[in-house]
Amino acid sequence: MSEIAVVAITVAKPGFEEQVREALEGLVGPSRRDKGVLQYDLHRDVEEPRRFVFVERWESQEALAAHAKAEHLQAFKKVVADWAEHSEIRVVSKIA
Question: 63 in helix, strand or coil?
């Protein structure tokens, strides 16, 4: 097993920035308790405040897969579906 990183971006629809922010903040505590999480930090784009970015590190691809199935993440996806304009998840491995 090797460590992986995730950059997850969610862009709120205009007018839904605070709902998306609150929903994303609600993921932080439960996700930081997920098995195999090393880092789970939420950021907001300075120049584009509708854009939120998670920077995550996981012990393994398996730990990330378990997180993806977690109840708190599934509930979040249902709640935010009507508020998000775009979401993107990139799984990366460190090379230097």
Answer: helix
Q: How many helices (H) and strands (E) does the chain have?
A: 3, 4
Burial 31-68 (b: 16+ CB within 10 A, else e): beebebbeebebeeeeeeebbbbbebbbeeeebbeebe
pTM: 0.92
Confidence at residue 1, expressed as pLDDT on a 0 to 100 scale: 61
For residue 47, the 8-state DSSP code is S
| pLDDT less than 70: residues of the chain | 1
Amino acid of residue 86 = H
CA distance linking residue 51 with residue 36, whole number of Å: 26
| pLDDT, tens digit, 9 for 90 and up, residues 4-13 | 999 999 999 9
What are the sequence ranges of the domains in the chain?
Answer: 4-92
Architecture of domain 4-92 in this structure: 2-Layer Sandwich (3.30)
What's the pLDDT at 17?
97
